[in-house]
Amino acid sequence: MQPDTEFILVTIDKSHITTIGERLYAESIEFVRELVNNAYDADATLVEIIVGEDSIEIRDNGSGMDMDGLRQYFNIGSQQKLYSPKSPAYGRDRIGQFGIGKFASLSACKRFEVLTKRDDFVGRVVFDKEQWEQSGDAWQLPFEKLPADFRKHNGTTVLLTGLEKGFNPADIEAKIIEGTPIKAPHFRVRINNHTVTPRSLSGHKIPFLEGTRFGAVSGEIVILSESASIAPELGIEIKVKQVTVRRELFGMETWGKTMARVRGEVNADFLPITSDRTGFIRDSDEYRELLKIMEKIMTDVKASLQKLTIKKEGKKVGRALKEALQRIYKALSVNPDLSPFGAFPIGGETKGSGSAADVAKEKTESEEVTVQEKPEAPPKKRKKKPKVKRLTPNAIIKKIKFGESGVSCVVDSFGEESAEVFSEETTIYINRDHPLYRRESGKAETHVLNLARLITQEIALMKDPRNPRQAFERQSKLLKDAFIEAG
CATH code for 15-195? Predict the structure, then answer.
């Protein structure tokens, strides 16, 4: 004989409905995002949000709901949007999945009512949290059918009253920008008559599009200028159906302070999200596939960031080197006896070539210029080209010229253990990897002075390499005249 089969009834405590809203989301302001996304799913082109002292109204011009639609709306955990993933009018990818987002409003208010119109049907449903909890086993909500002309156009209005706390419109706007498809065509959100616009990032942009077996991964990474980086917004936004679910660093936590310059978004609609939309199911194949794609993308981003940093550093070094050469030219022009290149040309105009500034010998009114027939110039001897070390693509090269002579100055990477400065014939090499150079290059003033110190050291040695003491004295004189302005 078989024993009698008994059954246990599966029940849900009624109070759990209110705790869904109170416990599901980390912030009570999330309910605004959910209601705006519901309007997007209903093909709304405009959502109006009116924020009052103790109430918030969210009104849209979407398709609205009929009686069956209202029943689905209050069907907890309804998967209707999974069966109809595209909206009928605009073919939008519907955002809602679980049918429980509307209860997020219960964490912020005591009462919400839904007024909706679809064609000739107009209905209103009221959810009062206190009445719901006191009505025992009754699960129904008060419904009122209204005249067809009660509302002129299709759409839905959700009115929340008895707010537990006030909400700042600026905070709501930030949540709308991040958590709704505000960039979508034919879709606009207004808060207290102010149109919400998406953030715009300017900088070096790196777009990407990668395919996976689950679907496409697309997006754009932006490398901001140092002045535009904002620490509280660190990370890359991960979006599912145009909605930011969370931000992640994707390995940037090891990049140091430069990671503050990287922003952007990645779109991966196939990712399985958690019910509160604050994360992903991390042990899923879909999420692991995204991490693999992003590892490759972030490697390219890091390389681009390094190139931009080096380029900016190169401009800074170029400016400092130019100023140092200008000052050295001025010092040599008043101390021609210290120049290893011979006396400066007399008369006319003498120029520092390359990026060195032009320095002219000014004529006074008493000066006379005598024009004489020039003798035939002897054939010029071919100059020996100076030896050139193998340079990196990031080398900064500038030249200072005195008549027919001069030196080339090269700032490049030669390794931390190499000399800070050295010369080969008429080329002076400055090692940007040297610890002393790195220390002095932090500030513009010390950077220029240090470059001038290194260059004048080599120029002074070129005058007479056999007498370092005199070379030191010549360098001291040149530096003083280069940086001490005449009184």
Answer: 3.30.565.10
